[in-house]
Amino acid sequence: MTTEPSSDSLEGLLDSARHDYKALGSRGLSLDLTRGKPAPAQLDLSDELLSLPNGRYTSADGTDVRNYGGLQGLPELREIFAEVLGVPVGQLLAAGNSSLELMHDCLVHALLSVVPGAESRWVDQERIAFLCPVPGYDRHFSLCRRFGIDMIPVPMTDAGPDMDVVERLVAEDPAVKGIWCVPKYSNPDGVCYSDETVERLAGMRTAAPDFRIFWDNAYAVHHLTDERVEIADLLAACAASGNTDRVFVFGSTSKITAAGAGVAFFGSSPANVEWLLGNNSKRSIGPDKINQLRHVMFLRDADGVRAHMERQRALLQPKFEAVGRILDAELGGTGLAEWTSPKGGYFVTLETEEGCAKEVVRRAGEAGIVLTPAGATHPHGDDPRDAVIRIAPSYPTLEELEQAILGLTVCVRLVGYERRQGLD
Amino acid sequence: MTTEPSSDSLEGLLDSARHDYKALGSRGLSLDLTRGKPAPAQLDLSDELLSLPNGRYTSADGTDVRNYGGLQGLPELREIFAEVLGVPVGQLLAAGNSSLELMHDCLVHALLSVVPGAESRWVDQERIAFLCPVPGYDRHFSLCRRFGIDMIPVPMTDAGPDMDVVERLVAEDPAVKGIWCVPKYSNPDGVCYSDETVERLAGMRTAAPDFRIFWDNAYAVHHLTDERVEIADLLAACAASGNTDRVFVFGSTSKITAAGAGVAFFGSSPANVEWLLGNNSKRSIGPDKINQLRHVMFLRDADGVRAHMERQRALLQPKFEAVGRILDAELGGTGLAEWTSPKGGYFVTLETEEGCAKEVVRRAGEAGIVLTPAGATHPHGDDPRDAVIRIAPSYPTLEELEQAILGLTVCVRLVGYERRQGLD
Q1: Of A385, B68, B82, B347, which is most buried with the most CB atoms under 10 A?
Q2: Phi and psi of B338, rounded to 5°?
Q3: How far apart are CA B177 and CA B175, in angstroms?
Q4: A68, B40: Cβ pair inside 8 Å?
Q5: Nearest Cα to B416, choosing from B338, B335, B345?
Q6: Is B259 close to A68, i.e. CB distance below 8 A?
Q7: What is the pTM of this model?
Q8: Which residues in chain A land under pLDDT 70?
Q9: ipTM for the complex?
Q10: pLDDT of B193-217, one tens digit each?
Q11: Which of B103, B255, B285, B298 to probe by mutation at the A interface, max A CB count within 10 Å?
């Protein structure tokens, strides 16, 4: 009996991967690719914020920003981000330092108050479910889990969530109250929703009269190439379709200025804005308007935001290019994995063969390369194919990143070839 | 039939009050005594904040405060306020710009999650009630109303809420889940809870296993006299009584540094802190640590806080003295009203004869002096005796304040004598 050339070859590939993994382990690496955190050099771009507003404390209309009040946020900051987020300034709210907080609070208020169009509080309904395009953002899923909201996975396509599935689910089940969307440069796929997707989201018939699209436009101006992708205006499309109150728009400057000390935004229909302001008025006497003024002075206008994001891109693009280059060189043609080449946002998605992701992440961890847990991109941390790994290239230095990605490819080869051998 | 001397005298007093009120109306005043807002001169005391942290962006332990993370807040800021609020630093959380938000969120989390010691989520219980010492703080009552929590008024004494009533209510009704307390220089009475009150709050038997004291220590260092009143340590007393998880302590720098851009604090038992942090971790990736560092650099330590509050006192004390002086001069001996002389805090409570407060506020409003609506100090805005008026002396200039209080006394005389005449 002669040895099959393919088996021969697999043995050799596995040996080589094992050798490389052993060498990797001996290097004592300690690298972290887990979260989409800006690197210190990116934060340095906004260091002017650290001494602003530099004695000034009145807004354009003469308001003393040091005092209480101004629940909707500073008008001049809302003007800048009205353009950036595509929300009329009167329908935009500037709040605290986190859009996640605003999403949390919208869920809380929908649970405990009656959201416009609803027949009752969500908490009084037997079951509430949200559609979760997968892969998606783990913190969205954690919010659902925290509030006992059922999660229904919907596959992503390269034009957004599979709208045939979405339309069917929202039409047949009145318990489906919402969908999580990161419409531009999605987390983690980098997908940009097509005009058709936006149109269908706006126009679809929903069994729930109080259905809401949580439109987490986290990467609105976070381009990585010369092509500044624009997506269609869902807020306007909803209004045009007569589903005026369907969308909550979220955004923030967390990945524009300072990750922990930026400003978050909420935009929606007049009825929804009034609803949120009404509920917020019980919670707060107003946001940190000094920080909002600080941002106005630093960013100046929408062009200022775009110019600033070019400087961010200059730091990020080489990192994303390095990830692509190394993945191409090490895994290209192996059939062991596929990966995205996003035009913006913060992540690269690596898709291994089925059943390999958890083991790759485990092996990488043992070699000192910490990755987001496999499965985190799916509700309940359960990726049924065990294939998706989210790579966050922003935080490490370019050199650390290259080491980490190279090490990751070794783990993909090791686990992939081991699996193939097991299948033989 | 001869005219009674008392009636004669009343007629004269009423004539004089009518004359004064007419003169008041002709002055075209526009004065606002509604809210406990710091005056611009008070905010000026913290203007150094407007250019801090001035290039620095690392905390004592080397954390980059510009980035995500640090859910519990900056340790060095928590150290300062651990001493100020009497909470061990490990059990203290430094959060966003508003303690009201923290109170709101504690209610939300208790409603939607299971608070330590609870048998179920509050939202799943048929009825929830809070004890509301009256007069009290309208925003506390608004939170109850917003969440459908029944409010049970409890009379205040000069040592805190009437503990005989409190002990009876909490012992007999398991639906009573909490009590609102402003334990030092209370809003609006300026009452400081006695050691006995604190002891009884800590030790009392409650029918609800998940009873919580919302201890809003808003005026912990906000003295107005040389006597720096100290209150007993409720957190320690609860632990000593075996009711370790009974109290949520709240505080903030809103009336220390900047009213809209300060830092809020939450302190409690280890189990409660873990519970809040666990829930907050779904909501936020961390507070604005730059603003926390800014506060550390500005305040330095607990002595720095106290020194700063002496500067605040220098601005506030003359205003409170003016209020007392004018009330004495104009209403002393008339029997028309009583008023407080607080040793700290932000308010003077004026108590008219029964049935006069609404009319006094209305008449004052017509004369251009805006007061907090009568009744606001009671649940549902309903002061059953219609007697309590809350005066907030901080925001106007001393001259404006004197005009406003003088005008207010005219209204008290007018309404009081009119009422007496009606009773004749």
Answers
A1: B347
A2: -125, 160
A3: 6
A4: no
A5: B335
A6: yes
A7: 0.96
A8: 1-8
A9: 0.96
A10: 999 999 999 999 999 999 999 999 9
A11: B285
